[in-house]
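During the first year of the project, the team set up a workflow for recording each protein of interest as an amino acid sequence followed immediately by a discrete structure-token representation. This format lets reviewers and collaborators read both layers of information side by side without switching files. As required by the reporting guidelines, we include two representative entries from the current panel. The first entry is reproduced here exactly as it appears in our internal archive.
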Amino acid sequence: MSTTTLQAPVIEVLQDVSPSGRARPWREKKMANELLSLAYEGVNPHKADRLRDCATYLSFAVDQSGHKRLEGANLCRVRLCPVCSWRRSLKVHAQMSQIIAAAERRRPYAYVLLTLTVRNVSGDDLSATLDALFRAWNRFAGYSAFKAAVRGWYRGLEVTHNCNPASPNYGTYHPHFHVLLAVLPSYFTSRDYLSREKWRAMWQRAARLDYEPQVDVRRVKGNTAAAVAEVAKYAVKDADYIIPDDWDLTVDTVRTLDAALDRRRLVAFGGLFAELHRLLHLDDAEDGDLVHTDDDPVSSDGVHYLSYAWFTGYRQYIGGSERGIGV
């Protein structure tokens, strides 16, 4: 009498490593996502449901060397979602890398990192302050000195939240712009050169401030990868609004940020960068595809597929072959 031995499917915990060797934080971002969904129960139950269902399923193409490329995922696209915010930052990084590479194929450029700030504001004043900041940027980028010096620009908004009870600015918000500028190599010795004091005076004038704001200006030296990573930061880091030791503060912060950031365009391209974004047929950096971010290429040889599901009880992504996930 013959017997048939049934082999259990191969089960594995998700390990996804970038080509640079850095582990991608799927587990950490999904755990933060679950905490955020709880906070949203008292803010917007519909978004809470979307967050719970976000990134519960992931599908990867895997090449012979073991590199993974995300091919499918159910993503919620809630602005504050830690998973979706992380994917947006990867997308911006990848797009800026492509744009800079395309610019360099035309001619050499130099790059400048610019950070434009205003004073911290209360949660009640955050939305109005963001309105004023975006109007200020439009004036700033329209100044003749800016246009003479800058060939292309990327601008991203970041809002940090001071949740340290020992800080004198506890509970306030700090909105600011991270900007990457493309300039000609001759800019630093030309009459179009702008010192830090000139940048600050221009920003103070554009933002119509009655005080001198903090403005940071630095030339990008060597590889531009660090500069691209700097401007591709999250709009808001999840540690700034998920405060497990103070749940009331978490809910209040989520409510404030959700209202202030709703329906806003947080990133923008101008000049040469906007032109190349169109010519490269790149999709929308905020509302476009968050699955294929072009940050994780795989070889076309010997590709197979793996899928993973989020198990809340294990707090892990557990997967197997595309034929199904078994336990």
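The second entry, processed by the same pipeline in the following quarter, appears below.
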Amino acid sequence: MKKLLIALVAFVPGMVSAASGHNVHLEDANIDLTDKESLRRGVELFQDNCAGCHSTQYQRYQRVAEDLDIPVDEMRKLIHTDAKIGELMENSIETKDAAKWFGAAPPDLTLVARVRGEDWVYSYLKGFYKDPSRPFGVNNTVFPSVGMPHVLEGLQ
């Protein structure tokens, strides 16, 4: 039994890595959790560019405001739906519509960040390139053939 446990501990990380198809170099996101100004800009960018399709449904608007010292009135301006400040950060797109438009419903980004890590998310967002053969005219080096437009293209 002990040998089986040792074998599992030794081989599972490699199997998970191979199963994820992770053959790309991930850039270091270099996140500074003490830089609240940068984090506030990130919340604004997320709300303006991502929250229409992606939720962060395990996070509350009010908690974000408290953690980043964003005044409640300022945080309310970042909520582009009829959600209240104490509610969970859910998207405004219907799952069935998203699946029809993009091939799959956009994932909840709190889960993506937790499962794949911040370096993966950072590299993914920077990994878009022009590809006229794709429906949105772009592809991604980290997640090839993804069904998402390059929403941050205007910021590059």
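For the second entry, the following points were noted during internal review. The two ends are 54 Å apart (CA to CA). The longest helix spans residues 2-20. Both points are flagged for discussion at the upcoming steering committee meeting.
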